[in-house]
């Protein structure tokens, strides 16, 4: 590339970054507020999983969530999305919400707004490319290490709400599953946003949730997503749109009229909103 061409490319990139760091709240989008609670009130919980996807632990975790008819938030690293696009596609197809967790889990708090924006744009691009959907909703951003700095404001300018957490079982410290169960039980409270991980060694995490999710459901807890800030919002629906003449095996998830549904067994023509014997409503997007 010529020196003139390089200069024009740099100016173009600077123009893009100058645009994306303009506060979105002025246009009615996310506000930059950091969120610690679910959208709904009462006995609602939001499960969030960071640092994946992992070819070892993400698939069995997704199997568990599908079995228990639970939707979660996956805070994906851009680099891992590039390595495992099949898992990003599965996360989206099963109706889970996507969250931008930076490209390589760097502490972005000390970086300039333009540097933060460049990282978050690259991460969202990597996630959408992996999913094969340039319009894939990515409604959340989570700061690596919970180190926010200006990142929540920059994320808001890119259309993402800043999702923190209010329960941390510290599943990254090597503790066995029974210790994680005890920590989660002790910290549990209405509207909690729970931090866990699917990247790294997550055997104890998976075992703990195999115990706790059925227990929580039996005790009347329901599963929600973290609250969004500002508005209006892009759709959170990532599962494919329901099609009348398509066959869906049991366990398949679809989005339809602002909700995510899961097929209880083989289905084809039954409309999700009018066939509760076939489709389980997993909640609003």
TrEMBL record:
<dbReference type="GO" id="GO:0016810">
    <property type="term" value="F:hydrolase activity, acting on carbon-nitrogen (but not peptide) bonds"/>
</dbReference>
<dbReference type="GO" id="GO:0030246">
    <property type="term" value="F:carbohydrate binding"/>
</dbReference>
<keyword id="KW-0479">Metal-binding</keyword>
<feature type="signal peptide">
    <location>
        <begin position="1"/>
        <end position="26"/>
    </location>
</feature>
<dbReference type="InterPro" id="IPR002509">
    <property type="entry name" value="NODB_dom"/>
</dbReference>
<dbReference type="InterPro" id="IPR050248">
    <property type="entry name" value="Polysacc_deacetylase_ArnD"/>
</dbReference>
<dbReference type="GO" id="GO:0004553">
    <property type="term" value="F:hydrolase activity, hydrolyzing O-glycosyl compounds"/>
</dbReference>
<dbReference type="GO" id="GO:0046872">
    <property type="term" value="F:metal ion binding"/>
</dbReference>
<dbReference type="GO" id="GO:0005975">
    <property type="term" value="P:carbohydrate metabolic process"/>
</dbReference>
<dbReference type="Pfam" id="PF01522">
    <property type="entry name" value="Polysacc_deac_1"/>
</dbReference>
<keyword id="KW-0732">Signal</keyword>
<protein>
    <submittedName>
        <fullName>Peptidoglycan/xylan/chitin deacetylase (PgdA/CDA1 family)</fullName>
    </submittedName>
</protein>
<dbReference type="InterPro" id="IPR011330">
    <property type="entry name" value="Glyco_hydro/deAcase_b/a-brl"/>
</dbReference>
<keyword id="KW-0378">Hydrolase</keyword>
<feature type="domain" description="NodB homology">
    <location>
        <begin position="43"/>
        <end position="224"/>
    </location>
</feature>
<dbReference type="InterPro" id="IPR003610">
    <property type="entry name" value="CBM5/12"/>
</dbReference>
<dbReference type="GO" id="GO:0005576">
    <property type="term" value="C:extracellular region"/>
</dbReference>
<dbReference type="InterPro" id="IPR036573">
    <property type="entry name" value="CBM_sf_5/12"/>
</dbReference>
<dbReference type="Pfam" id="PF02839">
    <property type="entry name" value="CBM_5_12"/>
</dbReference>
<dbReference type="GO" id="GO:0016020">
    <property type="term" value="C:membrane"/>
</dbReference>
């Amino acid at each position: 590339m010529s020196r003139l061409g390089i200069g024009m490319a740099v100016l173009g990139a600077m123009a893009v970054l100058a645009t994306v760091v303009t506060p979105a709240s002025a246009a009615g989008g996310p506000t930059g507020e950091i969120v610690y609670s679910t959208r709904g009130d009462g006995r609602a919980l939001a499960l969030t999983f960071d640092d994946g996807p992992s070819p070892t632990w993400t698939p069995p975790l997704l199997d568990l969530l599908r079995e228990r008819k639970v939707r979660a938030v996956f805070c994906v690293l851009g680099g891992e999305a590039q390595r495992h696009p099949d898992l990003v596609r599965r996360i989206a197809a099963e109706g889970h919400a996507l969250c931008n967790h930076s490209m390589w889990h760097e502490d972005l708090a000390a970086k300039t707004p333009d540097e933060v924006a460049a990282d978050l744009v690259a991460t969202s691009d990597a996630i959408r490319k992996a999913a094969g959907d340039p319009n894939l909703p990515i409604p959340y951003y989570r700061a690596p290490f919970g180190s926010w700095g200006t990142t929540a404001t920059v994320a808001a300018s890119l259309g993402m709400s800043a999702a923190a957490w209010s329960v941390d079982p510290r599943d990254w410290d090597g503790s066995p599953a029974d210790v994680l169960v005890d920590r989660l039980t002790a910290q549990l409270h209405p509207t909690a946003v729970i931090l866990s991980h699917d990247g790294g060694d997550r055997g104890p995490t998976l075992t703990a949730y195999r115990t706790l999710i059925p227990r929580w459901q039996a005790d009347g807890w329901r599963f929600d997503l973290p609250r969004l800030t500002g508005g209006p919002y892009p759709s959170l629906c990532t599962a494919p749109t329901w099609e009348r003449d398509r066959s869906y095996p049991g366990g398949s998830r679809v989005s339809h009229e602002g909700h995510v549904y899961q097929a209880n067994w083989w289905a084809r023509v039954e409309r999700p909103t009018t066939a509760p014997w076939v489709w389980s409503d997993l909640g609003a997007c």
